[in-house]
Design a protein that fits this description.
Two copies of one chain form a homodimer. Helices cover 45% and strands 15% of the residues of chain A. In chain A, helix 8 packs parallel to helix 9. Chain A starts with 8 loop residues before the first helix and ends in a 9-residue tail after the last strand. In chain A, helix 9 links the parallel strand 6 and strand 7. Chain A contains 13 helices and twelve strands. Chains A and B meet through helix 4, helix 5, strand 2, helix 6 and helix 11 of A and helix 4, helix 5, strand 2, helix 6 and helix 11 of B. Chain A binds a DNA duplex (16 and 16 nucleotides) through helix 2 and helix 4.
Chain lengths: 336, 336
DNA sequence: CTGAAAGCGCTTACAG
DNA sequence: CTGAAAGCGCTTACAG
């Protein structure tokens, strides 16, 4: 079928006795062109299965039809489940616009790989997989004037953001627990430099305030990133007769569950457990774990749409906030 | 610092009073060029931080400096941990050769996204994340004459492969268990269409043969991909006084562990458990789980090196087999 | 409505 | 050793 070299716009022009300009216009739809000429070209293209060389097109238009996904190097397993779903969403949208997705690994703020992509002129825009305080990747991108959108929230209103409404979600889950009469609710969170850690914390605080209840600060633990640390905190909480432990994400929740198991503490009989974030990690747990739910596929799709608009110079919302769900399971059930 | 437009090879030529050809040669190192001229150009480039436009370079050389990672759409969590480490390895090597990595999602044998990348002339080669029987992605790639290498093994000697030695690894772990006097060892495996499932099975069979022991076929279960099915099998195995359950991968092992927990069967007191594959999923389990260990980062790096060589037309090994480790933990300990 | 020509930023025979 | 010119496969003012 293939006759050696790939078909070019020139081959089509020759075959049809028109100019390359005309072929180009028929394909792009830009510029005036006769309806019948256009049809002839398009028919020929369909019949002969011509596909344009996007590299050449890109060079002529100074664009690449590539976007980069900036992937933190410290991603853990449950982040990966997020990444995976997000990627599926991003990839689907990108694909539908003939865009491709490259991944740039950013190990602890080392943006060199991303910089190379950009200085090599290989991408048109970037998606940041998460927001952090003092984000030097974002700073670099702003400085280099590369279009980008962040998944997550940021104080910097110059950064285009797409996020789920974590604050409202965490408020709602906490409220539900409070309304059930549970009072001593501990909150264990992860890396403080991640914006979302504070967003979730704020949701938790909102719930207490809303109910007119005082928060016991000593029940809040942040920067809990190791199993060892989580173990110690759980011991402390058990000694203090804590009624419920909320993990800000699944890996924390997993630490907590393992520790409780080791100590032979029953969930939900002896203590309740919930998570501010769900992944398949907890889905099949025994008992099943109450958690928040986010449509990560849609998050990815919306983010990609936003970036593509941004690249095309279309107006975009500075900040889009997507919804959430609360999934009540066995781990917070009242045992009578 | 930036004076609007990006610096080109022409700017350098003008500044130095030489031709673009000379600049190009100094950069690429190809063609005869005077040592001092070369130095002058290189110095200028360093000083002014010039970076070539890889798109233009690619167009001139009919290459893209991109490779694609073909990612199955049915990836589960533990696959993602594999993917992540692999990606880090691939990305590191690719990056060091100024190559970038695109991801192509392949939902259940639908290669359309990959085809688009290829017909759009956006990539120079492909890495297949796993091998399956009757692989239509590989078939397409062979047909399209796109350089590619598969992570995993295949009967098709035309396919360049890089893999860990799963067969020897599984043989060794099984042997160790047999030598400890454990006889009724059940094996629960996943998707049969994945080549690695059979490779692992063969390792298990090798161990029995080596010891001159008969295999009880009824202890071997394949295509176990749901929690429900795994639960039923575990019940069956418990009724049959099985002494040890090997999961072919971590997600299966996880199903098994959850079921045993539900049934209040103690590991390793009542039954032993091992996994033919490790990920962080099992690492922190209580008790810790005996498993095989593979250096996935190195696997990714070696695969990428191979693909890059293949693209450059250098000779490559048709099949590279990397090592493994056996990690004995609490879950197979003898309880006296 | 259509085309010739210049251009995107490189590389590479071909001459000298 | 160095350079002018053509080419990679598109797009896009500019003319007609």
């Amino acid at each position: 079928m293939d006759s050696g070299r790939n078909m070019t716009i020139g081959d089509i022009a020759d075959a049809l006795g028109v100019s390359k300009t005309t072929v180009s216009r028929a394909i792009s739809g830009k510029g005036r062109i006769g309806e019948d000429t256009k049809r002839r070209v398009l028919d020929y293209i369909n019949e002969h299965n011509y596909r344009p060389n996007m590299i050449a097109k890109g060079l002529a238009q100074s664009r690449t039809f590539n976007i980069a996904l900036a992937l933190p190097g410290d991603y853990n397993l449950e982040d990966m489940s997020f990444f995976q779903k997000c990627l599926m969403g991003i990839s689907e949208i990108a694909n539908s616009f003939e865009y491709d997705v490259m991944v740039a690994v950013i190990p602890s703020n080392d943006t060199s790989q991303l910089e190379r992509m950009i200085t090599n002129r290989k991408i048109d825009g970037v998606i940041l997989m998460r927001t952090v305080f003092q984000d030097n990747t974002a700073a670099y991108l702003k400085d280099a004037e590369v279009p980008f959108v962040a998944i997550g929230s940021s104080d910097d209103r110059k950064i285009v953001q797409v996020d789920n409404d974590h604050r409202a979600a965490c408020r709602e889950l906490t409220s539900i627990l409070l309304m059930r009469g549970i009072r001593k609710i501990a909150l264990i969170g992860g890396n403080q430099s991640h914006v979302v850690t504070h967003t979730r914390l704020n949701g938790y605080l909102d719930a207490y305030k809303e109910m007119g209840l005082a928060v016991d600060d000593s029940m809040i633990y942040l920067d809990v990133e190791s199993c060892v640390l989580a173990d110690k905190i759980v011991e402390e909480l058990l000694a203090r007769k804590c009624e419920c432990i909320i993990g800000m994400d699944d890996s924390i929740c997993n630490y907590v569950l393992n520790k409780l198991k080791k100590e032979k503490i029953m969930v939900p009989q002896d203590i309740k457990v919930a998570s501010f974030y769900n992944s398949s990690l907890l889905e099949n747990n025994v008992p099943s774990i109450t958690s928040l739910e986010f449509d990560v596929l849609e998050l990815g799709m919306e983010t990609c749409r936003t970036l593509l608009d941004l690249i095309d110079g279309k107006p975009v919302k500075a900040r889009a906030l997507l919804g959430y769900g609360v999934s009540l399971k066995e781990s917070t059930q009242k045992m009578s």
